[in-house]
Write a structure and sequence with these properties.
mainly alpha
Length: about 100
């Protein structure tokens, strides 16, 4: 009878160990599920309206407009420089004519 009692105690111990192992395995599975749910990207939905992005054609148009504007400013600066030089030459000629006219008096 003690042999049967020992066998029963050994079976009870094995069942207790198996139950603990099963519980640990189930806990590991639940932990893996929780980690997977946290790692999954959450999609955030904005409520504000996004502006449409400019197309390539619009950017090319803007670039061309800036280039044409830059060339226009360069020509305007050149025209002002020429106008200043002409004004200086005219002022010098008129001053020389004024001096000649004063000497002749």
């Amino acid at each position: 009878m003690s042999d049967a009692l020992e066998k029963a105690e050994a079976a009870a111990r094995d069942a207790a160990v198996d139950t603990a192992a099963v519980q640990i395995a189930l806990a590991a599975v639940e932990l893996a599920k929780a980690a997977q749910q946290q790692a999954a990207p959450q999609h955030h939905h904005c409520e504000h309206q996004h502006k449409e992005r400019r197309s390539t054609g619009e950017w090319l148009g803007i670039g061309c407009a800036v280039c044409v504007g830059g060339v226009g400013i360069a020509f305007a600066s050149l025209a002002l420089a020429i106008l200043g030089g002409v004004a200086m030459i005219i002022a010098l000629i008129l001053r020389d004519m004024w001096r000649d006219a004063k000497k002749g008096d």
